[in-house]
Design a protein that fits this description.
The complex is a heterotrimer of chains A (128), B (413) and C (494).
Chain A (H helix, E strand, L loop, with lengths): L4 E6 L3 H8 L8 E6 L7 H9 L4 E6 L10 H18 L7 E5 L5 H21 L1
Helix pairs in contact in A: 2-3
Chain B lengths: L2 E5 L3 H12 L3 E5 L25 H13 L3 E4 L2 E9 L2 E8 L3 E2 L10 H4 L5 E6 L2 E6 L14 H5 L5 E2 L2 E9 L1 E4 L3 E3 L16 E3 H10 L16 E8 L14 H16 L4 E6 L9 H10 L3 E4 L4 E4 L5 E7 L3 E7 L1 E6 L1 E3 L1 H9 L13 E2 L2 E3 L9 H16 L7 E4 L5
Parallel strand pairs in B: 1-2, 1-11, 2-3, 11-23, 13-20, 14-15, 14-20, 15-16
Antiparallel strand pairs in B: 4-5, 5-10, 6-9, 7-8, 12-21, 17-18, 18-19, 22-23
Chain C lengths: L1 E6 L8 H8 L2 E5 L5 H14 L3 E6 L5 H12 L6 E5 L6 H16 L6 E4 L5 E4 L3 H12 L4 E4 L4 E7 L2 E7 L6 E6 L1 E4 L18 E3 L3 H6 L9 E5 L8 H17 L3 E6 L9 H10 L3 E12 L5 E7 L4 E7 L1 E4 L10 H7 L26 E3 L9 H19 L3 E4 L4 E2 L9 H5 L5 E4 L4 E4 L9 H5 L5 E2 L5 H7 L6 H7 L3
Parallel strand pairs in C: 1-2, 1-3, 3-4, 6-7, 6-11, 11-19, 12-18, 13-14, 13-18, 14-15
Antiparallel strand pairs in C: 5-20, 8-9, 9-10, 15-16, 16-17, 21-24, 22-23
Helix pairs in contact in C: 1-4, 2-3, 4-13, 5-10, 7-8
The chains are: A alpha/beta (128), B alpha/beta (413), C alpha/beta (494).
Chain lengths: 128, 413, 494
């Protein structure tokens, strides 16, 4: 999988969960970018990050009703959907942008989500 | 500015400690175990794409705030040597039953871990909180054979030696947040706990799911999730014969949340919750029940009386049916929703502060300079314990200055 | 000047020479940078060398935030001007260089941020004079804080933000209004009483449970029903409050006259002190509990009331006839008062109650700083829970007003040239921080209410909104995707 995954993380959930993973090898190739809220992640930004060479963008937000800013992760979900639709239309592969709802304490779920995304990206690369 | 002592560093104790500290007071947070945080640190997140409002993540935020607040001093491995009251203040001689690591001073460098000859040092890292702590039962340090290895390895002096004599601390108020003891399922042997590896307690299920994504033991032959799971409610609660005739409040909450989680992760799984009644643990109980129904989770009225083995390592439950007398049901795994009860050590500690428990063993809210909060006072969940801790802190801090309450009448029918 | 502080704990992973090569910025080696002593030594270097942006490199993942916060404070650097990175033991020089460059690029884009301090108004307004409102007022008084209680119906307008809410009241006597300022508001307004003249009620036959005891005590022996049914959970699952009231009402009725009593409910809500005992006593006294599933049907045709439901214990339909039926108001999906909800400008839950069902708000917070909720109006109808809410609200109000309101002026900024007044941000902001500036003909952010989440910036269709400390340039820089020269030139601050 070339290019690595950029994880746009909400500082209240994803950022803390990533820190709990510490030196776990699952984080190889994952670059974490901190946001105040996943609701700040914009469709344009996700596509730009892919354009600049990342293999995938993983948006990590708080589960709905856990969002510190109440609506953020729900908005992020909609923006990710727009990005995925755009990528699908362009024939580039919607797997390259994904949203996961993971709280700050759900470390095993985060590891699983990263592994799943890596697998999906590798499969997509294999097809291309 | 006053000084307060908080005994117990679970969610209720930490909520109270933070309330005291935010108001500018000094707080001594005393914990009997080797690490702060109480039982919440072993509970899992029960969110699917939407939160289940269990409170585990907000509890971790609270612990992070406590560790960062300069007004809170923390001691673990605490042994309360003496407790005295004089002139409205409480004096406590605080000893240490073994060497202990101050989680506020710990920089998480990990140098103590390989230095310990007994491999007694653990690390906790989750939800923005991380620190090292000593597992007292494995630590070899003894009065006649002291072991300074960890203390010598620590670069910041965060590790302290055992202190049998203790230091004197004086406080203007005391908050007891002594926690609970989960019901021991061995007291209901017909439910199969300990006989079958695929019978779990609710607490065990939480602990497993906090570290892995499927409900399987670490030594299980396969990591595949059990496809048919039964939750048995009210184990050790609402039971006059066991002299535990109270509702533990949280078991419906954690069982339904875990059921929702398991159903979400494995859409084909067959999840059944055997309950007497479903308690009102969340404002959104009605939509939750609808969601569970839509996901195929069954809530059955009637609690099985026994769990036995069935073919293929499965489990057979015996359920009483008012119509047919009895029927059986087979599942791959059973979770016993054990209730919360008073901790006998808590009773002894509370007595030293002049607080006597009620007939069931739970502590009254208290008065004067000593209050109780959290599960030692009543079975309750994380948000409730935090709220009660804060409310108890308010009670202790108030009465020092009188304010004015005005009322504006009129304009209403 | 940007300074890079390299902790000795990274010795094996990354050296000074490697960094100086990658970064082109001054490197200050140090020891144990995550301790208070480390912070102090970094602060000294910052002052001596005129460093205005700092990047701290160490090994401890968990200490990152704490280190940034304490160093900012010690060295008086602005928000966002200190970043910390940890390097894993694995990883290569190239990756580390890229991370450092990204962090430095992001640091370069962080503007100077000022803070504004305002003294909050010291008074608290408690809206609601019931038990919850009184508990909140008493708690405030015991903390030495002045509280004013009022009925919700007296309030006609609420404006402002935390520390400074301007509330308009109807005057006593009904003529005219007056206004007053408060630092915080505690809403304990309860829920509207069910309308006893509308469905499911039928006057004289199907009455609100709250009216049952009064009604029975006014009846003569002849008028007293031979049997009565109490219905809980009619539209929504209710709390222990309804269950407790039902048990007590039935026991009270039985103490007046011999009467057959039925309680229809989904579940016995006994998770509270004394409730299991109350349930036992009710059953021992002969109160019959029918645990029904799904919908219950009440029919007041004829001389009595027919109650039909599916008994989930017996697994069959049951129908009983009784002289009088009482329906618990807690089981009806009554929303909070609509006018009050609109005035407060806070989100509601699916039932229209005054608090979104978000774990981070429990128990007393709303989406707006300075506005707190307690009790039935937020859905906590059970008495002890409501009192606990009230105490938490009082403490939170007290904490808010005990110190000056310090507002960091890093709130969302709207570019007037691009703003099309579509009002998306105004509608979207969960904290009511966006308003319309009619003069400038653009949306504007109220700094005191802004929570810096960036939803507005993310959603604006014209990209007219920026969050200065989290601008696109900064985020793209951090993601290793170098922003293009044009946007950097526009964003860069001296």
């Amino acid at each position: 999988m070339k290019g690595g995954i950029v994880a746009l993380c909400c500082e209240n959930s994803g950022w803390k969960a990533l820190a709990s993973l510490g030196d776990d090898p699952v984080l190889d190739g994952v670059e974490a970018v901190r946001l105040p809220c996943s609701g700040k992640a914009e469709t344009g930004m996700m596509l730009k990050i892919l354009e600049k060479g990342a293999a995938g963008v993983l948006v990590l937000g708080c589960p709905k009703d856990d969002c510190t800013f109440l609506r953020g992760s729900a908005r992020a979900q909609k923006r990710v959907a727009v990005a995925r639709a755009a990528l699908k239309d362009a024939g580039v592969g919607e797997e390259r942008v994904r949203m996961e709802f993971i709280s700050s304490v759900d470390t095993p779920r985060l590891a699983e989500a990263i592994r799943a995304m890596k697998a999906a990206l590798e499969a997509h690369e294999g097809k291309a | 500015m006053s000084t307060y002592i908080v005994v117990g560093s679970g969610v209720a104790g930490c909520a109270a400690a933070l309330a005291f500290a935010k108001a500018g007071n000094k707080v001594e947070l005393l914990e009997a175990e080797g690490r702060i945080g109480g039982k919440v640190l072993s509970y899992c997140c029960k969110a699917t794409d939407s939160c289940s409002r269990c409170g585990v993540c907000t509890a971790h935020d609270l612990f992070a705030q406590i560790l960062a607040h300069p007004g809170v001093a923390i001691r673990t491995a605490v042994d309360l040597r003496t407790v005295r009251e004089a002139g409205g203040r409480t004096s406590v001689r605080v000893g240490a039953s073994g060497p202990w690591i101050d989680p506020k001073a710990c920089i998480d460098c990990g140098r103590c871990v390989p230095a310990c000859p007994s491999r007694a040092i653990r690390r906790y890292a989750r939800g923005g909180v991380s620190f090292h702590h000593i597992e007292g039962t494995q630590c070899a340090d003894a009065p006649d054979a002291p072991c300074p290895s960890c203390r010598n390895a620590c670069p910041t002096g965060a590790i302290h030696a055992a202190d049998p004599a203790g230091t004197l601390k004086k406080a203007d108020g005391v908050l007891l947040a002594l926690g609970h003891r989960p019901f021991d399922p061995a007291l209901k042997p017909r439910l199969g706990y300990g006989r079958f590896p695929n019978v779990f307690t609710g607490a065990e299920a939480e602990e497993i799911l906090s570290r892995r994504t499927t409900l399987t033991r670490a030594d299980a032959a396969s990591t595949a999730a059990p496809r048919s799971v039964a939750f048995i409610q009210c184990v050790g609660s609402r039971d006059p014969l066991l002299k535990r005739n109270w509702c533990s409040a949280v078991c419906c909450a954690y069982a339904l949340r875990l059921a929702r989680l398991l159903a979400h992760r494995d859409p084909g799984a067959e999840i059944t919750v055997y309950a007497i009644d479903v308690q009102d643990f969340d404002k959104a109980l009605t939509p939750l029940r609808a969601e569970l129904e839509a996901k195929g989770v069954k809530i059955v009225r009637g609690v099985p009386s026994s769990v036995d083995s069935a073919a293929g390592g499965r489990l057979r439950l015996l359920v009483e049916d008012p119509k047919s007398g009895a029927r059986t049901a087979e599942h791959d795994a059973v979770v016993l929703s054990v209730g919360l009860g008073p901790d006998p050590r808590a009773r002894a500690t509370a007595a030293r502060f002049g607080l006597d428990p009620d007939a069931d063993g739970f502590l009254p809210e208290g008065g004067g300079g000593v209050r109780a909060a959290g599960t030692c006072a009543a079975p309750q969940g994380i948000p409730g314990s935090m709220a009660q801790g804060r409310a108890a802190a308010l009670e202790l801090m108030s009465g020092r200055a009188g304010g004015h309450v005005g009322s504006r009448a009129g304009g209403h029918g | 000047m940007t300074g890079i502080f390299l902790c000795s704990c990274l010795g094996e992973v990354c050296g000074r020479a490697e960094l100086e090569k990658a970064a082109g910025a001054r490197v200050f080696p140090g020891e144990r940078l995550c301790t208070p002593q480390g912070t102090a030594s970094m602060a000294v270097s910052i002052r001596e060398h005129g460093v205005d942006r700092a990047l701290v490199l160490g090994c401890a993942a968990a200490q990152v935030d704490a280190v940034c916060a304490s160093l900012r404070k010690a060295a008086c650097l602005g928000t966002g001007r200190v970043r910390a990175l940890r390097f894993a033991k694995r990883g290569n020089a190239e990756g580390r260089a890229a991370s450092v460059r990204a962090a430095l690029a992001a640091l370069d884009l962080v503007p100077e941020v000022r803070t504004r301090k305002t003294k909050p108004n010291r008074e608290v307004l408690v809206i609601g004079c019931g038990a919850t409102g009184r508990a909140a007022s008493e708690a405030l008084a015991s903390l030495g804080r002045t509280a004013l209680m009022t009925e919700a119906a007296s309030v006609t307008d609420i404006r402002g933000s935390a520390g400074r809410f301007t509330v308009r009241f109807r005057n006593v006597g009904g003529d005219g209004e007056n206004a007053r300022t408060f630092g915080a508001l505690i809403v304990a307004a309860g829920l509207p009483e069910p309308d006893a003249s509308r469905k499911p009620f039928v006057p004289g036959r199907i009455i609100p449970l709250a009216d049952l005891s009064d009604r029975l005590s006014g009846l003569s022996r002849r008028e007293f029903p031979a049997s009565l049914a109490v219905v809980l959970d009619m539209e929504i699952d209710e709390t222990r409050a309804g269950f407790e009231e039902a048990c007590r009402a039935c026991l009270d009725a039985k103490s007046l006259r011999p009467v057959e009593t039925w309680v229809f409910l989904h579940d016995a809500r006994v998770a509270g002190p004394g409730l299991e005992d109350l349930y036992d006593r009710a059953r021992e006294a002969g109160v019959q509990f029918v645990k029904y599933g799904g919908r219950i049907r009440l029919d007041a045709a004829g001389s009595g009331v027919k109650v039909r439901a599916r008994d989930t214990v017996l697994g069959e339909e049951v129908e009983i006839s009784c002289g009088l039926a009482a329906v618990s108001g807690y089981g009806l999906a009554t929303p909070a008062d609509a006018e009050l909800t609109a005035m407060l400008g806070i989100g509601t839950d699916a039932l229209g109650r005054l608090q979104e069902n978000n774990i981070r708000l429990l128990p007393e917070l709303t989406g707006r700083a300075g506005i707190f909720v307690a009790g039935a109006c937020r859905g906590a109808t059970y008495g002890p829970d409501a009192v606990r809410d009230a105490r938490n609200a009082a403490l939170s109000a007290h904490e808010l007003l005990s110190r000056p309101v310090e507002t960091e002026l890093s709130h969302a900024v709207v570019d007037g040239d691009k703003c099309a007044l579509c009002l998306t941000c105004v509608r979207l902001c969960p904290f009511r921080a966006m308003t319309v500036n009619a003069e400038k003909k653009q949306a504007e952010c109220v700094p005191e209410s802004c929570m810096h989440c960036g939803l507005c910036a993310g959603e604006c269709p014209n990209k007219a909104i920026t969050l200065p400390l989290w601008s696109d340039g900064i985020i793209l820089a951090l993601s290793g995707a170098a922003p293009d020269a044009a946007s950097v030139a526009k964003e860069k601050r001296p």
